[in-house]
């Protein structure tokens, strides 16, 4: 038998990146070339010589330091190290977001070093090569954004893996046998990442909760909540505490408040609402002006600071409105009963009361605690009927009671006058630069089992605008009242739109013949309003509404008041929904504290609370969006054999997104599945172009589609392309 030849070592151009990585992971510790070669498992002469050469080059470039002859290190503090956040893509690569860079830094897969989406990390940024985007490498994960994940468990003999449906989660999670809990193979589970050993490909985790079987309705809804770290129910100790709260109306407490029980008062809410946050009172004064009260549930009367109930409400920060249920911020005893401004019941409220002229000038205002009695509860449809017809008999088909009934002349008159005043307020706001986003909301008719029977669209009408305008008035005036005193307060702020996003939006809407005026913020808001008017009722409305909203900055809570661009208000806050929003509770507490003569509150403390509330609002919004997507997929599962007319709502190199006109469900047609031609992506035209026919599939085109696949777990729809709308069936 001949002598076995040694396989030659794989030649590497250089080891610079790997040397940097080794020295970075052990900052301030010196290594010689032998130690580095050992770590890299290189024992051939050629590789060792290359390592010596690379060490000298890196030292000459001042990327590393020669601390003593032949020994090299990286100092812990370096101008090439930056802290920021990881933004994963669905392609197992990421971008590093850091305020010190105008452009995000690209992180290739092999440089992620166990960082996950939204983690706070320390990154080494390599010298940018000419004409190429800067790249970086994660040196250390400073803080995990998330350690709990939802996925499906695959159980083997001695271990298991959990894989998630989240496209940004690039690894599965390894579960040792003794960390399985009650999970069975194929279950949807919640897992907690406990560790990620250095030489392990996957993080190690533990099953903390079994959510059920994939595709089952309750499983998927609970999975959505768990994915965003949102609770499904209240801890028993919080429920017990809430049940013991004294919710009676006492004469002693009434004596401390402004008594407005004799003033005409009513509520207007969605027909399925149970938590009535707000009521309006109306009185015509002898001088011809109107006294209008905006009365808000006095949640802070029941929700005492420092209690387990208050802690739970703060942690939740918001109610979550999923497609088939509400996950409330407060237990039902408060949200649906004690605090809810139900008809024919006395309630404690926190009120903003205004004296308003016929021309909508506010000549007097008063803020404080009150007691009210609601004379009537309306659904929006009922109030809208009064506004449209001036009729005092509500027909049975829209009546909350299911039977027709007569409304008192006083309430009809008040409703019509409030509508008249609201329209003046709204017109004035628009003239001052407010932007009108009346985006169509997708709603589902559900049967008793929560299965979707049909889709309908919720559109804001005059009755919605009536309530909106008076809530805006209260929110604005409360913020202005405290803001002008220069005291710490919780504002709802909204920055000017991102110009890059507006330019990208302009490129899209130009395909439909629209444009935006960029000359100044005022012109932008006017042209956006004109755009909203022009697209109303058109096939591209939902697409352009969505693009316009995405081009806007996100509103958030802060103690630093920069105004509210979208509403064109210098001062704005959230005062009107404390049953479902914790910032409103903070506003009530601060307002009462200042009415009592208190000094300016701790700004740093309230800014921390504002940041938490904004974060929780974002998670709740994502959960709500996911629940709608889930229900859309579920609805389309039952319509797999049906043809649908849709609008191309997005074009990418891998396919086109299509939104079905009649139900707003969006799905994808992959380029490879379009058989009539070989299509390639043309970025300039926002289109796929046929190689043979030169035909376009372009943003805004109408096409017929059929469901190819409806994936409930991933909440994704795939469509098959049938034909263009102008083409006839053969």
Automatic annotation (TrEMBL):
<feature type="domain" description="S1 motif">
    <location>
        <begin position="641"/>
        <end position="722"/>
    </location>
</feature>
<keyword id="KW-0694">RNA-binding</keyword>
<dbReference type="Pfam" id="PF00575">
    <property type="entry name" value="S1"/>
</dbReference>
<dbReference type="InterPro" id="IPR001900">
    <property type="entry name" value="RNase_II/R"/>
</dbReference>
<dbReference type="Pfam" id="PF08206">
    <property type="entry name" value="OB_RNB"/>
</dbReference>
<dbReference type="InterPro" id="IPR012340">
    <property type="entry name" value="NA-bd_OB-fold"/>
</dbReference>
<keyword id="KW-0540">Nuclease</keyword>
<dbReference type="InterPro" id="IPR050180">
    <property type="entry name" value="RNR_Ribonuclease"/>
</dbReference>
<protein>
    <recommendedName>
        <fullName>Ribonuclease R</fullName>
        <ecNumber>3.1.13.1</ecNumber>
    </recommendedName>
</protein>
<comment type="function">
    <text>3'-5' exoribonuclease that releases 5'-nucleoside monophosphates and is involved in maturation of structured RNAs.</text>
</comment>
<dbReference type="InterPro" id="IPR022966">
    <property type="entry name" value="RNase_II/R_CS"/>
</dbReference>
<comment type="similarity">
    <text>Belongs to the RNR ribonuclease family. RNase R subfamily.</text>
</comment>
<keyword id="KW-0378">Hydrolase</keyword>
<keyword id="KW-0963">Cytoplasm</keyword>
<keyword id="KW-0269">Exonuclease</keyword>
<dbReference type="InterPro" id="IPR004476">
    <property type="entry name" value="RNase_II/RNase_R"/>
</dbReference>
<dbReference type="InterPro" id="IPR011129">
    <property type="entry name" value="CSD"/>
</dbReference>
<dbReference type="Pfam" id="PF17876">
    <property type="entry name" value="CSD2"/>
</dbReference>
<dbReference type="InterPro" id="IPR013223">
    <property type="entry name" value="RNase_B_OB_dom"/>
</dbReference>
<dbReference type="InterPro" id="IPR040476">
    <property type="entry name" value="CSD2"/>
</dbReference>
<dbReference type="Pfam" id="PF00773">
    <property type="entry name" value="RNB"/>
</dbReference>
<dbReference type="InterPro" id="IPR011805">
    <property type="entry name" value="RNase_R"/>
</dbReference>
<dbReference type="InterPro" id="IPR003029">
    <property type="entry name" value="S1_domain"/>
</dbReference>
